[in-house]
Amino acid sequence: MRLPMQEAAPEPMSETFAISLNGTTDLPAGKIAAIVTSLEMLSAPERRTDPPGVEGFSLEAIGRDDVARYLAVYRLLGERWMWFSRLVKPVAELQAILADPLVEFFAVRFGGRDVGLLELDFRVEGEGELAFFGLDESVVGKGAGRWLMNRALERAWARPIGRFWVHTCTLDHQGAVEFYQRSGFSAFRRGVEVVDDPRLGGAMPRSAVPHCPVIE
Q1: Are 215 and 29 in contact (CB under 8 A)?
Q2: In this structure, are residues 106 and 118 in contact, taking their beta carbons and an 8 Å threshold?
Q3: What pTM did the predictor assign?
Q4: How do residues 34-58 score in pLDDT, each as one tens digit?
Q5: Nearest to 77 by CA among 107, 111, 38, 46
Q6: Are 78 and 132 contacting, i.e. CB atoms less than 8 angstroms apart?
Q7: Would you tell me how many other CB atoms lie within 10 Å of the CB of residue 196?
Q8: CB 3.0 to 4.6 Å from 208: which of 10, 79, 130, 165, for a disulfide?
Q9: How many helices (H) and strands (E) does the chain have?
């Protein structure tokens, strides 16, 4: 008696694909892509004065064991600008990052609530990374961006570093690159990042990041 034919296993999706350098490249369904720009400064820039009317803003350290508060602020900002790396990271890994004394993270406070996040990463010797920098839309236009960048630069260059850097992408605020350049950063690298859409995996609501529609 002949045995029934076994159904062939589906071919796994390749982790790589060719990108056209002179035209459009179609992405597989369920993927998103962004152009990433990395910027750096190799010495502390001249200090800029705080804009008027920012007296109500303050930085408050988030407790190193307060993962819930950290993620609440992260989601507040990330659901507009596709911040998801912390949301898909295992809790134990996130706890280890927050417990590291070479990582600093603060909530921006205004009007009695958390309206922003500043995270600085000094785990590479001699360098500082502006890991996360963001403000809720409710306070944008009040001078908070410049105020927060002044705090970030003060804290970063108080450390024994020779380089401070940041990266941003085309899913972020359209003025991000120019803002960083005005703050003293210079672009040094550009790349293409392709990842699974976190909204399809449940890490973010499907309504998040409306300027980047879900395609599945």
Answers
A1: yes
A2: yes
A3: 0.90
A4: 999 999 999 999 999 999 999 999 9
A5: 107
A6: no
A7: 14
A8: 79
A9: 4, 7
Amino acid, res. 166: V
Residue type, 135: L
| pLDDT classification of 5: cutoffs 50, 70, 90 | very low
Q: Strand 103-110 vs strand 186-196: parallel, antiparallel, or unpaired?
A: unpaired
Edge-to-edge strand list for the sheet holding 58-61: 58-61, 103-110, 113-121, 127-135, 163-169, 31-41, 186-196
Q: Is 61 exposed, middle or buried (0-12, 13-18, 19+ CB in 10 A)?
A: exposed
**Full 3-state SS string of 131-161:** EEEEECHHHCCCCHHHHHHHHHHHHHHCCCC
- What is the distance between the alpha carbons of residues 153 and 165, in angstroms, rounded to a whole number? 11
Residue 105, amino acid: F
Q: How many CB atoms lie within 10 A of CB 45?
A: 14
pLDDT, tens only, 53-93: 999 999 999 999 999 999 999 999 999 999 999 999 999 99
Check residue 118 and give its pLDDT.
Answer: 98
